[in-house]
From TrEMBL:
It is an enzyme of class 2 (transferase). The keyword Transport does not apply. Its EC number is 2.1.1.144. GO terms for molecular function: trans-aconitate 2-methyltransferase activity. Keywords: Methyltransferase, Transferase. PANTHER family: TRANS-ACONITATE 2-METHYLTRANSFERASE, TRANS-ACONITATE 2-METHYLTRANSFERASE-RELATED. One of its GO terms (biological process) is methylation. InterPro entries: SAM-dependent_MTases_sf (IPR029063), Trans_acon_MeTrfase_C (IPR023149). Pfam families: Methyltransf_23. This is Trans-aconitate 2-methyltransferase.
Length: 246
């Protein structure tokens, strides 16, 4: 079953979610690409950043979620519905931000994408690397009680594994960053993961069962991520980046 998405909920943390995209894009050295592709564009707010970076390029985008594609089109983005697993690579710059953690076997997919790029083409990818963090471990533990499987630490590779996979690239930059996000509001970590990691749980459970799930998970997250004296909560979020030039 495909995961459903809520563009508005996803954008509740737009600033936090956009920063890794900016850090990723800063390492892409393309100067005058003809065609830039946003693979897994979400609501399209970051596709517009690509258009601003390369105003003379054709910028296209796609996402597997009909809701996300609709939201992107409302922003004027040339978006289509397409699954990254079935996509035939095109363009001389391909950007894939916070998508491939949803795709089993994506390491082989990355190799195919790089091989399909034209000479001097660029591939830029970012995935979350926090599947062993308390937020995700606790979410999995509670999901097990409801017979719902969530992705584990093997969902993404370590940076060195990605570097080895793409070692034949003409230029390769692989790194990781842990952002210390300052979250506010009631149960902010729960709210954060509700827009992404918990979407499969929401899809699998009835409204009543999901409420029961949240009631069990929320206090565990509050204990793992206690609020500061000012009411805010620090949330470490690890991200893995790779930029390769064919």
């Amino acid at each position: 079953m495909a995961t459903s998405w809520d563009p508005a909920l996803y954008l509740d943390f737009d600033d936090h979610r956009s920063r890794p995209f900016a850090d990723l894009l800063a390492r892409v050295g393309a100067t005058a690409p003809r065609h830039v592709v946003d693979a897994g564009c979400g609501p399209g707010h970051l596709t517009q950043v690509l258009a601003a970076r390369w105003p003379d390029a054709r910028v296209t985008a796609f996402d597997s979620s009909p809701a996300m594609v609709a939201a992107a089109r409302e922003r004027g983005v040339d978006a289509m519905q397409q699954d990254v697993s079935d996509w035939r690579p095109e363009g001389d710059v391909v950007v894939c931000n916070a998508v491939l953690q949803w795709v089993p076997g994506h390491r082989a997919l990355l190799r195919r994408w790089l091989e399909a790029l034209p000479d001097a083409g660029w591939l830029a990818v970012q995935v979350p690397g926090n599947f062993a963090a308390p937020s995700h471990v606790l979410a999995r533990e509670v999901a097990d009680r409801f017979d719902v499987d969530l992705r584990d630490a093997a969902t993404v590779a370590e940076p060195a594994q990605y570097a080895e996979d793409l070692a034949g690239a003409a230029a390769l930059d692989v790194w990781e960053t842990t952002y210390l996000q300052r979250l506010t509001g009631e149960d902010p970590v729960l709210h954060w993961i509700s827009g992404t990691a918990l979407r499969p749980v929401r899809d699998a459970l009835s409204d009543a069962a999901y409420r029961d799930y949240v009631e069990l998970l929320a206090p565990r997250l509050r204990e793992a991520y206690p609020a500061n004296a000012d009411g805010s909560t620090w949330f470490p979020f690890r991200r893995i980046f790779l930029v390769a030039r064919r």
